[in-house]
Design a protein that fits this description.
277 residues, single chain, alpha/beta, six-stranded mixed sheet
């Protein structure tokens, strides 16, 4: 198991840039997987700087239909002619965040042009429920809500009648990889809650130890009480490694590090990690 951060909100690696987005290149089980594609073509520039050849990727998995996880996918599909792209069937909602009671100017959803979507449409494989790609690699499909979850940020899209409807984020899904040391669970933003994502990942391979949870946790807008509750629940799961990334928020990341110590690993664009028992 080896995974490399192609895109993340921060970086300290020479020649590697950061942006608001997430992309991870994973080598496991004889497969090479692109998990999310960042917000732009930066994913390609950073891959070149890190010596990673994206033409060799077996497939791509998209965590959910937001621009900061899908913006680099057209550039990836231009250079990689064969890899199927697994994305949830509900991911193409044109959703917006609201500010002061009004929708934001740009959609939070996928921002591909019509030409880009046509170029990729034969590559797209729609998911819904759990999917096993191999004996050791699975996609959760829609992440079920964990008990007590409430979102820290909401998004809305217009329904067929033109009314604003809250996006239930049913298009959020996780990638799960079973290694000898346990499960590696990758979650893009955990809009349905990081505990929800964790439980969905564990359900793919019941009874397995959690070797690592690598996740954007969407806690930057959460209150201290909300962050503390989530961190206590994560600590009780006794993960081998916890990597809070992207939308987690620096306050939450620092609080996790203080609570979990060496178990909490802070990752940035350009970083490479290897599985460990």
């Amino acid at each position: 198991m080896k995974f490399s951060f192609l895109v993340e909100n921060k970086t300290a690696a020479p020649g590697v840039m950061a942006e608001h987005g997430l992309s991870i290149y994973i080598e496991a089980g004889g497969e090479r997987i692109l998990f999310d594609a960042g917000a732009s073509r930066l994913v390609m520039d950073n891959a070149r700087a890190m010596g990673i050849d994206l033409t060799s990727a077996s497939f791509a998995v998209i965590s959910h239909g937001h621009y900061d996880h899908t913006g680099g996918l057209p550039a990836f599909c231009e250079v990689n002619q064969n890899a199927p792209v697994y994305i949830h069937r509900n991911a193409f909602r044109d959703s917006f965040g609201f500010e002061h009671g009004k929708p934001e100017r740009e959609t939070s959803g996928i921002r591909w042009s019509s030409a880009e979507r046509r170029m990729m449409e034969k590559r797209i494989v729609f998911t819904d429920g759990p999917v096993k790609l191999t004996e050791r690699i699975g996609i959760t499909g829609t992440v079920p809500y964990a008990e007590g979850f409430s979102p820290t940020e909401k998004f809305y899209y217009r329904d067929a009648e033109g009314q604003w409807v809250e996006d239930d984020m049913s298009h959020e899904q996780c990638l799960v990889i079973k290694e000898p040391e346990g499960l590696y669970i990758f979650s893009g933003c955990s809009h349905r809650g990081v505990i929800s994502a964790l439980h969905a990942g564990q359900a793919m391979f019941p009874g397995e130890r959690m070797a690592a949870l690598v996740a954007g946790m969407h806690l930057y807008g959460a209150s201290l009480a909300e962050r503390s509750c989530v961190i206590e629940q994560l600590a009780s799961e006794k993960p081998g490694v916890l990597m809070p990334v992207h939308c987690t928020g620096m306050k939450a990341i620092c609080e996790m590090k203080a609570k979990l110590g060496d178990c909490c690993v802070i990752a940035s664009a350009g970083d490479v990690f290897y599985g460990r028992s």
